[in-house]
């Protein structure tokens, strides 16, 4: 991972965009229906000023700006203090200073979106596309035809994100996440050194999908470049990339679909026990919850489970045993094999 942190390609690309800006090749694609007109949000104005000052930004930079902008962090701070002081119903948010209350408005929007903010991991992706000149990273720039609109462009030169592309990669579009790789490497080293395990559950695929970067607003698909700051941005986890980052340090299992994992964990038996003890309204709630978790068209096949374990957990002890110890039998890892009743 140190190649990404210390690579000498950053200055080269900065120089390229300053000296030969005309080589930035524009392209456009959308994750949702095109709106009738552009909504100029405070976040959009901020991004336009930033791009004008420093040049096109990576998709990772864009996601960080939109998802962890200071207004959102301030909103979380206020909520934290409100919870720490007893969750008083009489809550006042006062912004002192010149202006039109824009910051306070941003913070109030955070309050309404707090659930999605708190569960966001702040792990951003880099989009990389195969071109006749080789792999090129996708950046975000200002549309020259519409001054208050953003567009995707291809970098004119190699960028550090391309280090993470496999030599035998067959896809034309790849989403890479160096931060996720660092987290997996740190988890793997800790598990290899001190034991333990990691269970990762998320939307994802095993290195088969290409363009999964998308936005959601009001539970509907939303163009990722339209009205930034008003929608949640997400991308699927590439579990094959996580497996490569953990390789050698620990063993990995999965990914397997949530439907299969929960079935292996005995969710059907658990549901039957709960239904037998519940009245009719509670039964309906249980069945609706079960359907949401297990239905392939809902979360059943959209969520995946992936585990990191010490090698000896799957293959037995890796160090010599004394005469008083009996060789342990390797038990199956729960959730990753069919449930066996004894």
From TrEMBL:
GO terms for cellular component: mitochondrion. Pfam families: Methyltransf_28. Keywords: Acetylation, Methyltransferase, Mitochondrion, Transferase. It is found in: Mitochondrion. It comes from the Eukaryota. One of its GO terms (biological process) is methylation. InterPro entries: NDUFAF7, NDUFAF7_sf, SAM-dependent_MTases_sf. GO terms for molecular function: protein-arginine omega-N symmetric methyltransferase activity. This is Protein arginine methyltransferase NDUFAF7.
């Amino acid at each position: 991972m140190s190649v990404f942190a210390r690579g000498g390609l950053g200055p080269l690309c900065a120089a390229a965009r300053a000296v030969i800006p005309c080589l930035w090749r524009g392209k456009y694609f959308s994750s949702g229906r095109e709106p009738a007109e552009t909504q100029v949000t405070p976040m959009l104005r901020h991004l336009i000023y930033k791009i004008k000052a420093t040049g096109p930004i990576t998709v990772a930079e864009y996601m960080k700006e939109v998802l962890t902008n200071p207004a959102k962090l301030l909103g979380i701070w206020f909520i934290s203090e409100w919870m720490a002081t007893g969750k008083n119903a009489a809550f006042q948010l006062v912004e002192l200073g010149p202006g039109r209350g824009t910051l306070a408005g941003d913070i109030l929007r955070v309050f309404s979106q707090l659930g999605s903010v708190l569960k966001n991991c702040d792990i951003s992706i880099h989009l990389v596309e195969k071109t006749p000149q080789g792999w090129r990273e996708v950046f975000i720039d200002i549309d020259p035809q519409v001054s208050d609109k953003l567009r995707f462009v291809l970098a004119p030169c190699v960028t550090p994100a391309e280090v993470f592309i496999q030599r035998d990669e067959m896809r034309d579009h790849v989403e890479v996440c160096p931060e996720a790789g660092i987290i997996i490497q740190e988890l793997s080293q800790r598990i290899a050194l001190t034991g333990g395990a990691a269970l990762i559950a998320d939307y994802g695929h095993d290195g088969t999908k290409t363009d999964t970067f998308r936005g959601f607003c009001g539970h509907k698909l939303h163009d990722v470049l339209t009205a930034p700051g008003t929608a949640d941005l997400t991308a699927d986890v590439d579990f094959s990339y996580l497996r490569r980052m953990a390789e050698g340090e620990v063993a990995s299992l999965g990914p397997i679909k949530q439907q299969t994992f929960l079935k292996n964990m005995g969710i059907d038996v658990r549901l039957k026990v709960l239904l037998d003890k519940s009245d009719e309204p509670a039964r309906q709630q249980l069945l609706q919850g079960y359907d949401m978790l297990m239905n392939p068209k809902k979360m059943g096949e959209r969520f995946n489970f992936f585990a990191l374990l010490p090698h000896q957990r799957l293959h037995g002890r890796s160090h010599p045993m004394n005469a008083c110890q009996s060789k342990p039998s390797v038990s199956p890892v729960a959730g990753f094999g069919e449930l066996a009743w004894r």
